[in-house]
Amino acid sequence: MKIAPSILAADWLNLSEEVSKVEAAGADLLHLDVMDGSFVPAISYGQDIIKAIKKVATTPLDVHLMVNNPESLVDSFVDAGASILTFHVEATKHPHRLLQYIRSKGVSAGLALNPGTNIDCIEDLLDEMDLLLIMTVNPGWGGQKFIQNSILKIDKAKALIGKRQIEIEVDGGINENTGKICAQHGASVLVAGTYVFGSKNYAESIGSLR
Ligand code: DX5
Ligand code: ZN
Predict the structure, then answer these.
(1) Which of 61, 144, 146 most suits a substitution to test ligand 1, by most atoms within 8 Å of the C-beta?
(2) 52: part of which helix (H) or strand (E)?
(3) Which own/partner pairs from 108-112 qualify as long-range (CB within 8 Å, at least 24 positions apart)?
(4) The listed CATH number (3.20.20.70, 1.20.1260.10, 1.20.58.410, 3.20.20.140) that belongs to domain 2-209
């Protein structure tokens, strides 16, 4: 099980310290949420903040693009230091081509699905992706409640993926309880923002997710 704390819930005025603390506490990846104010209502941060994080980070950067027209931004996020680059299937007409393009840049390609998007849409994309991100809340904010129906989606994803080497990542409302259920159903990466950064002891909260 990999744990990916989401920087969205960190103390941004002390980002360098937060990154070091969460890595020392056992984070496997740093989850970086990019929001454009169009695909989702909020605007978070972009390439320059990620470049700055890359300078101090020792764990891979797991970049989650919640943006429209991700094809126009992929190159700049590769340059910023992403190890995994995930975009939303709802945000582009050409997910197949974009997954291939991300891989061609030597970066792991991830596909994200909103809670309202049927899992069957991944079927013809499976051979092009390294990671499937199942949103367990509607994207846009941290601190929302886990959507229970996501469990069924993980089951369906697992069946579609079969023997392929594709990580199943869940994102939104993950805590000790919801994380355990997702793991039992086949999730291999847990994103957690509020649960980790809102806790007093990052090592304890990360440990409880594992
Ligand atoms: C939501 C983001 C999440 C968010 C998760 O749009 O994609 O990564 O940071 O936050 P929590 O863990 O607080 O639900
Ligand atoms: Zn995310």
Answers:
(1) 144
(2) helix 47-56
(3) 108/83, 108/84, 109/84, 109/85, 110/62, 110/64, 110/84, 110/85, 110/86, 110/169, 111/86, 111/87, 112/64, 112/66, 112/86, 112/87, 112/88, 112/139, 112/171
(4) 3.20.20.70
- Indicate the pLDDT class of residue 20, thresholds 50, 70 and 90: very high
- pTM of this prediction? 0.98
Would you list the domain boundaries of the chain?
A: 2-209
Structure confidence at residue 32 (pLDDT):
98
- CA 205 – CA 120 distance, rounded (Å): 34
Distance CA 52, CA 194 (A): 22
**What residues does ligand 1 touch, defined as CB less than 6 Å away?**
6, 8-9, 31, 33, 64, 137, 139-144, 171-174, 191-195
